[in-house]
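Internal tracking record. Fields below are filled automatically when a chain is submitted to the structure queue. Please do not edit lines marked as system-generated. If the sequence contains nonstandard residues, flag them in the REMARKS field before resubmitting.
Queue: standard
Priority: normal
Entity type: single polypeptide chain
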Amino acid sequence: MTKVKTGLVRLTYVHLDKPYAFEEGNTPKYSTGMIISKDDKNTIDQIKKSYEEAVEHGVEKFGQSFKTRVTPLLRAPGGEGLLIDGDQDERYADSPEYKNSWILTAKSATPPLIMAVEKGERKLDPEEIAEIVYSGCYAKVLFNFYPYSKAKKGIACGLNSLCKIKDGDSLSGFKASVADWKDEIEQAVTDSLGDDYGDLL
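SYSTEM-GENERATED OUTPUT FOLLOWS
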């Protein structure tokens, strides 16, 4: 009941081919951020409903005090929370990619199922994920909210799976391409085989 299947979102801070720890001492996890348009009312409504259900599950599991100490859904500037306002948070406010958007990060301790429209109906292996799923591409994501009670009580966002739908401008500077090295490869092949083979390339 706490699962959310998004509309089209843009991925950011992608770490899906291998686990990554954002801070030293943290457990490495697979993760991705999602840039969710504020106009995507269906996804936002799912998020709100699923968060509330996760809070109720936490109350049932850990007691009534869970509700008063739980992680808020919306993150106030400088505070805690799951859903970041791209128009208000100073880290994103000057970046046009985050305008009129919410930002949410989902994580998983185990490898999530990753697919891509361009690869058909099959799971991608880590090498393919590293090559074609990147910060800036567009995808639909399946995740869930769940309660926890460790050093402190809270709600976490767990990544289940995603399907890359289409490419987009990279948010990490530029996206590597085989075409970047086309001239060097052709020249190296010509040098090794001789000029007579150049017309075959």
